[in-house]
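Bench log, entry 3. Co-assembly request; chain sequences pasted below exactly as received.
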Amino acid sequence: MSLLDPPRSRSLPDRLTGPAARLSRSWEVLLLGIAVLIFVANTQASPYFLDPWNLSDATFNFTEKAMIAFAMALLIIAGEIDLSVAGIIALASTAMGWALQFGLGTPGLVMIGLAVGLACGAVNGALVTRLGLPSIVVTIGTMSLFRGISYIVLGDQAFNGYPDSFAWLGRGYVVWVISFELVLFALFALIYGIVLHRTNFGRHVVTIGNNPTAARFAGIRVERVKMVLFLLTGLMSGIAAVCLTARLGSTRPSIASAWELEVVTMVVLGGVSILGGSGSIPGVVLAALVMGMVTFGLGLLNVPGIVMSIFIGALLIGVIAIPRLVARIRGR
Amino acid sequence: MIRSFVRSREAILLGALIALVLLVESRFSGFASPGNLAAVFNDTAILIMLALGQMLVILTRCIDLSLASNLALTGMVTAMLNAAVPGLPVVALIALAVTLGVVMGMVNGLLVWKLDIPPIVVTLGTLTIYRGLIFLISDGAWVNSHEMSAAYKALPRAELIGLPVLSWIALAVIAGFAVLVNRSALGRAFLAVGGNPHAAVYTGIDVGRTRFAAFAIAGGLAGLCGYLWVSRYAVAYVDVAGGFELDVVAACVIGGISIAGGLGTVGGAVLGALFLGTIKNALPVAGISPFWQLAISGAAIIIAVAFNARSSAKAGRLILRPESTA
Amino acid sequence: MSYSIDMTDQIAGATDPVLRLAGISKSFPGVKALSDVELALYPGQVTALIGENGAGKSTLVKILTGLYQPDAGRIELDGAAVRFATASDAAAAGVTAIHQETVLFDDLSVAENIFLGHAPRGRFGLIDWARMRREAAAILTRIGAQIDPATPLRELGIASKHLVAIARALSIEARVVVMDEPTAALSATEIEELYELVDRLKREGKAILFISHKFDEIFRIADRYTVFRDGQMVDAGRMADVTETQLVEKMVGRAVDTIFPQRESVPGEVVLTVAGYAHPTEFADIGFTLRRGEILGFYGLVGAGRSEVMQALFGVTRPARGAVRIDGRIAVIRSPAEAIAQGIVYVPEDRGRQGAVTAMPIFQNVTLPSLPRTSRRGFIRMAEEFALARTYTERLDLRAAALDQPVGELSGGNQQKVVIAKWLATRPKVIILDEPTKGIDVGSKAAVHDFMAELAAEGLSVIMVSSEIPEILGMSDRVIVMREGRIAAEFDRARLTPETLVRTAAGYDRKGVAA
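Structure output for the full assembly:
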C-alpha cells in the first residue's frame, strides 16, 4: 500500500448525522419558524396583508438591501466588513444623475451606476488588501468620503427626470405581481448561494474567515479573494443604487441613509457570524423576508418606521442572546 | 522624554492641527485668535467627551455604536422632564442624564460580558432600539426652546473665567480621563485587556468586567452629553445627533487609537476630535460649502488609519545577531 | 553522561511544605485533565514536575495560579485551606508563575509589564510611576538583565521578554514560584543565568515548582520530583534517589526503548538545492541540498531560525537573497500557493493557528489545497471530495467519528494526521515537517515516524525540524544544526552523538555547564 497514492476504501463514514437531523438544528429552521409566525400574525392583524399586490409591494422593503446583503454576507464570512455600501449607493446614484444631464440613455446610466459601484469596491479592497488596514475603519472612512462627494456635488439639490425606461428597473413588473427587483433578488440569491456553498471560491471564503493564517498556509491567495469580495460588494451596491434611484425617480445625497446598518443587521440576523467563518445564503434570504414582513406588517397597522426599527434591533440581539441565555441556564 | 514625545503620534497630530490652524489663519486672519480658538474648542467639547468614552471601549477591543442614540435619548428625557416639571433643579436633571446613560452603557456591557455577543452586534441593535425609544416617549414631537426653562438652557452657556461652562466640563472630563487612564489600576486594565486579553487573565484582570466598566463609563458620558447637547442647541427631537456615532469613531481613529485595541492615549482622542472640530469650523470661514465636511472627514480617517498602520508595522523575531557575537 | 546533583542541606531536614495540593481533580467536557493528584512544595527547594505533553501539568499550573478552579480537592497554604478564585487571589497569597507562553503586553512599558495588577500606589491610590520604574530597575538589576524599564516591550527580543516575565514573577512578594518551561526560549548563557537565579531564590527560602522536558536541566537544579501521567500523579520523591532512566519510565509508563523505524536509505538524485539564502533579520548564509528519498533533520535551540528558513522556503516570508532550485531549475516562490504548485509543502509547528482550520470538518481540511481535483470548473463535487478525503485519512489511520467532524474535536495526533493527509493529497515532491510530534501522544508519535519512513521510501524528500534529540537521531539521514540564524554544522547520522548535537546547537563547550 502506498502512502502517496493509496487505494480507495470505505470505512470512515462521510457524515455523523443525517440531513434531517442537521436541518432540525439549523439557524435557518429557527428563522423559518419566526418568519411563519410573523406571517400568520400579519394575516391576523390586517385583512389587507394577504392581497397579492400588497405582498408584492412588501418585497420592495428588502429586495435592494438584500442584494447587497448577499455580497456582504460573503465579505463578513471572510472576516471583513463594508460599512460604506450606503455611501456607494449615494455616490453611484449621484453619478447617474449627473450623467443624466448629458442625455445618457438607460443602458448608459446603468453602466455608470455599476462602474461607480465597482470603483468604490476597488478603493475599499485596495485599502484593506494592499495597505493591510482594518476594514471596519477603512469603510467608516470611505462611507463618509463617498457620501461626502455626493454632498459636494449636490448640496441640498436633487437630480430628477430619469427616463421611463430607467424607472422600470425600480418599479416595473416582469409578470403579474412579480417585480423586476424581486426577480433580481431571487436570481442573486441563487447565484450567491451556489457560489458560497458549492464552489471552490466559496470554500476559500469560509476558510479565510475561520483562520486566515491556515488559509494562506494552504495556498489560498487570501488578499485576492478579499479583493474580489470588496469588488462584489461594490458592484451589488451599484446594482442596488440603480434599482433604488429608478424606484425613487430622484437622487438626493441623503439617499439610502443608514442602510449599511440595516444590511449588516440582515446578514447577522441571517445567522452569519460577525466574527467570520460561518453563515449561509438561505439564512440571509430568510432574514430579508423576516425584516421585510415586519416592516410591512407594522406599516399596515400604521406603526411608524422608527418603532419597527426597535423591533428589528431587539430581534437582532434577541435571536443571538436567547440561545446563549438558554445554554447558560441549562449549563448550571 | 522629549525625544519620545516628538516621535509620538500625538506630536505628529498636534503638528498637523497647528499647521491646519495656521493655514486657515494665513488666508483668513482672525481664525487663530484666542477667542476663536476657544469657540472652536467649545464647539468640539461634546465630540471630545464622547471620543474619550469611545476610546475606553475601543481600547478593550470593543466598539460602541450606540453612543449617539444614547445621547439623543437622555437628551430627550431631560428635555421632556424639564418641560413637564420646570421647577426640577438642573443638577438633578444632569444626575438623571448621567445615570440613564450609565444604565444604557451597562446594558451594552452586560450583553457583551455575560452573553459574549460581539460588541458591534450588540451596539448595532441598541443603536436602533435607543433611537426608537425616543420616538416612543416623545411620539415624534419636538421639545422646542420655549418649552425649556431658562435655567435648563443657561448652564452650558454660562461663562466662568472667560470660558463657557460647557468648555469647563470638557476640560474637567479630559483631566479626569488623564488620571483614570494613566494613573489608576482600572485605566491600565483597559489597555491590558485590549493589548493582550489572554495575558490580562493571567495578570488577574477580569476581561469581561473591564469591558463592562468601559461601556458603563462611555454610556455615562453619552448621558451627560445628552443634556449638554439638547440644552446648548435648545431643541430635542428624534434625530438629534443622528450619525454622530461615526464622527466619534472617526475622532478616535484620527487620534491614533488602534481599532485592534490596547493602543491609544487621552491626548490622541482629544486631538483627533479637535482636528475634526477645527475642519468643521474652518470651512465656513474659508468660504467652502459645509457640504465638503463629510468628504474631508472621511478622507482624514483614511489618511490617519493608513498613517498609523505604517508607523506600527510589526517587527519579526529578530533572531539574527551580528556575526561577531555568533 | 554524568550529572552533578545539587544536594542542598535543606533536603536532609525537610520541613513542612509551604503549599500542598491534595486530591485535586479537574475535568473539561470530554476530558479528565487531572484526577486526584497530590503535590507538595517545600521552602528552599526546587520540585521538578515531569510529564509528557497532555499529562496535566499546564492544568495544574492554572489551578495553582487561580486561572482554573479544581472540581475537587484541597489547596493548603501553611497547612490552612485556601481558595484561589482569580489570578489576583493566588498572587496575593504569594503564588506566582512564569508561564510557558510569554504572557505580556507589547504596547506597555517594561516597568508596567512587571507591575501590572500590583503597581506601587501613591496618594489617592494612584499609580506612582517614578517608584514603579525605580523598583522595576532594581528587580531587573537583581536578575542581571540590562533592560531600561521605560522601553516599550515591543522593542525587546524574545530572550529579553522572557527576563521581563521572570522579573514580573519576582515583583510579587512570592513564597511559591512556578516556572513552566522557563528555558525553552533562552540561549545557553541565558539558561546558565537562570540557574543562578533559581539558586538565589532557593537561598531566599522560596518554594519552586520547575516544569521542564530537559532531564539534564532537572538533574542540575531540582531537589525533588513529581511525575504526572495521563492526569494522575504516578510518583514523587527525591532526585537523589532516582536515575534518568527510571524517571523516563515513570513518565512514559513503560520501558523506553524508543524504536524508530528501520530504514534502508537509498538517497537518489538531488531534488532541492538552497544556496546563499538570507533574510534581513531572521537568518543568513543558508545553503543545503536535499535528495530524493532522504530525511534531512534540522536541529537547533528554540529560536535558532529553523522555522523561519522553512517558512521562507514555503513562501510565507520572503528572503532578501538566495536561490532555490527544484530538480535543477530555479524556483521562484513568493507565496505558499506557488510553493505548493512547485511541490513543496509544509506541516507547521503551530498546528492550531497555521495548520488546521479547527472549526471546519475533516474532509474540507484535507481537500483544501486539492480542490481543483475534486471540482469541475470551480464547482465542488461532494462525492469526489469525500472520496479523496477518505482515501488519505484512512491510509494515515485517522481516528474520527466521521469525515464531517470538526478537526478541533480530534486529539493532537489525529489533527496532525489531517494536516499531513492534506499535503499528501497534493502529491508533493518535498514535505517539510516542523516539530511533527510536538504535543501528540506516544502512540501517534510512533505512527508519524512510520509515515515519515514510508514516505521517504516511496521517494518523497523529507525535511524534519525537531528539537527532540532522539527523533533527530532516530529518523534523519543527515542533520543540519542551526544557531542564531545560521547553519552551525552539518552531520551524517553515523558520525553523530547527542553530545555533539547539543554542543553545536548551544555554541559552547558543554563541560562549562554541567560538569
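The first strand of chain B starts at residue 159 and ends at 160. The mean pLDDT of chain B is 89.
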